[in-house]
Amino acid sequence: MADTVGGGLARARGGLGLALRRILSGGRKVEPALYEELLETLIAGDTGVAAAEALVEEVREAAIRRGVVEAEGLRDLVAATLAAQLGPAGELQLPGPGGPPGVVLVVGVNGTGKTTTVAKLAARLAAGGRRPLLVQADTFRAAATEQLSIWGDRLGLDVIHHRPGGDPAAVAFDGVRAAQARGRDVLLVDTAGRLHTRAGLIEELKKVRRVLAREVEGAPHETLLVIDGTAGLNSLEQARVFNEAVSLTGVVVTKLDGTARGGVVLAVRRELGLPVKFVGTGEGVGDLVLFDPVAYAREMLAP
Ligand SMILES: Nc1nc2c(ncn2[C@@H]2O[C@H](COP(=O)(O)OP(=O)(O)OP(=O)(O)O)[C@@H](O)[C@H]2O)c(=O)[nH]1
Ligand SMILES: [Mg+2]
Questions:
Q1: Looking at the domain covering 5-86, what would its CATH class be?
Q2: What is the DSSP-derived secondary structure letter of residue 45?
Q3: CATH classification of 102-248 is 3.40.640.10, yes or no?
Q4: What is the domain partition of the chain in residue ranges?
Q5: How far, in Å, CA of 242 to CA of 236, rounded?
Q6: Does residue 8 line the site of ligand 1, with CB under 6 A?
Q7: pLDDT (tens digit, 0 to 9) for every residue of the chain, 303 residues total?
Q8: This prediction's pTM
Q9: Are 186 and 94 in contact (CB under 8 A)?
Q10: How far is the CA of 138 from the centre of ligand 2 (A)?
Q11: For residue 145, what are the contacts with CB-CB under 8 A and spacing of at least 6?
Q12: Ligand (nearest to CA of 111)
């Protein structure tokens, strides 16, 4: 399984990583213009201005302390600073054996990769010995059930769903009951893509969350926002709204394959204080990588 960032995120070396390595090479001297370029490159890579400024400032201070004069000598400092600002790696926090079933609620705007991420997470959990149940609380699109059912067939996992137009919270309720009846220890709850600007849709999501919280102790144990890594910093605004509505525990950034905007992982951490838990690097079921900041930063900056 592509479980290390080095495998799955080898593409971090392209895009932002490549741009950073270009600046920090070629026998250049450390000078103000170089820090300017570093700053501009980070901002162009979607780290957000505040995160970029904080990172460059910290690198500059560390470089002075250590007397670094060659640009290449900055690589390790940039990698270490980036990793520190990204925080620790964020595995899923689910109840262990003997506890209630783990509940993972997956939310986000249209087309970010929620359904695919639910399938990928299920495969990962199953490979780790858990017994997941898929719950399709997207009753908005008829095709949503079919899409998740295809994944369920492929993975050999059951899918709980209702008719299109039904109440998503009722599906969540049935999901919990089915998990108990069938001895499943993790529920992965997919939801309809929704505009963060539509209050009614956000209320519906809150109701799904309330039902899960009422039916399972401590649930949802994870509420993951799926954002599209190519969509730019607009994702942060969405994240704030979802966070307020359903208390996010982490973020999954999808489509980080082949984007120059990988810096969004830093913006998420800095602006929202939320860990990026996983990164999607393709459409296949194995294309989900546990996000490890140290490995990610190293991968980006290693020669
Ligand atoms: N390249 C790439 N494509 C992805 C990734 N994750 C999802 N996709 C693709 O993005 C498209 C949308 O994925 P879905 O999982 O259907 O997205 P969704 O958020 O469930 O969409 P809605 O339910 O309509 O809101 C599909 O074509 C996926 O194959 C990823 O990490 N990388
Ligand atoms: Mg979907």
A1: mainly alpha
A2: T
A3: no
A4: 5-86, 102-248
A5: 10
A6: no
A7: 334 444 455 556 667 888 999 999 988 999 999 999 999 999 998 899 999 999 999 999 999 999 999 999 999 999 999 999 999 888 899 998 889 999 999 999 999 999 999 999 999 999 999 999 999 999 988 899 999 999 999 999 999 999 989 999 999 999 999 999 999 999 999 999 877 677 788 899 999 999 999 999 999 999 999 999 888 888 888 999 999 999 999 999 998 876 656 788 898 899 889 999 999 989 999 999 999 999 889 888 988
A8: 0.91
A9: yes
A10: 7
A11: 136, 138, 159, 161, 164
A12: 1
- The letter for the amino acid at 260 is A
Beta strands per DSSP E along the chain: 102-107, 132-137, 159-160, 186-191, 222-228, 250-254, 276-280, 288-290
Q: How many A from CA of 116 to the centre of ligand 1?
A: 6
Ligand 1 atom having least distance to the Cα of 226: 19
Q: How far is the CA of 48 from the centre of ligand 1 (A)?
A: 24
Question: Does the Cβ of 189 fall within 6 Å of ligand 1?
Answer: no
Residue with tokens 């890579």: 45
Question: Do residues 42 and 263 touch, judged by C-beta distance below 8 A?
Answer: yes
CA atoms of 105 and 99, how far apart (whole Å): 18
The rounded distance, in Å, linking the Cα atoms of 73 and 27 is 10
Q: Are strands 288-290 and 276-280 parallel, antiparallel or unpaired?
A: antiparallel
Looking up tokens 């020669």 gives 303
Q: Say which residue the tokens 């919280």 belong to.
A: 213
The CA angle 131-137-140, to the nearest 5 degrees, is 150
Which residue has the least CA distance to atom 31 on ligand 1?
280
Distance CA 99, CA 287 (A): 29
Number of neighbours of residue 100 by Cβ within 10 angstroms = 17
Query: Are the CB atoms for 194 and 205 separated by under 8 Å?
Result: yes
Of all ligands present, the nearest one to the C-alpha of 113 is 1
